[in-house]
Amino acid sequence: MVIIENNFIKAQINPLGAEVVSLFLKEFQLEYMWSGDPAFWGKHSPVLFPIVGTLKDNKYEYNGDTYEMGRHGFARDRYFEVEEKKNDSVSFLLKSDDESRLIYPFEFEFRVQYQLRKAQLNVTYEVTNTGKAEMLFSVGGHPAFALPLSEDTSYEDYYLEFEKAETAGRWPISTEGLIETQPITLLENSQQLPISKELFQKDALVFKGLNSTEVAIRSDKTDHGLWFDFADFPYLGIWAAKNANFICIEPWCGIADPVDSNQQLKDKEGINKLPSGELFSRTWVVELF
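^ thats the sequence. predicted structure below, dont judge the formating
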């Protein structure tokens, strides 16, 4: 386990998947990350690459060939090299290899960088196309934050507060994990969305094109919560396993296949296209309070 810390936060990151497993606010002795209880969901903060969400039939086509890949890609199940480590930051590196080429025919370097700044964790995804062909990919985060944060509050005491008033629908997810063709009304000129276990009985809330680039988790019964900046990411997922005491805020550059997908990687919604030799970089930020 790799540990970084400053006077405010101590973070623990597992090189398997470059996954944050603990985010501890020192002043209040509060753990903000989900415990990873396998009875509900055995992960903490998986990194999603080179796809986000589910492919139709778990397959895609590229240059006439068909490849199979599971939900959210393979990076979360691979060991990353610790490329550079300081007291308050660390950079993890995953490179294309013979194993990755079997299911993803691109040459790449994928870095996940963690930097602490006071009570903030800054997370940067860097993708470098080291091949000769244009690279097609998606990338995203899946951090699960523990709720309730204090013993004198309950899960339902918290709410999401968006930066701006939103009129937005959730894009339903089919039983196969694909995005349906029409959204369902959820927010009507509102900044707040109450958090409840019932909210996630039909999988994640998936948003496209929000006006907000920030969202917070707050409660009227405690001063503790968090602020989350996803300005670099065009899609946002909000999710929790059924009846589990956590909530995921998921910034995505990419999205699951729609139910009517033609399975062509080049046509996939949200796919990023990176020319040979170029670098793609996106950052999300969470601040604890």
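The CA atoms of residues 128 and 182 lie 34 Å apart.
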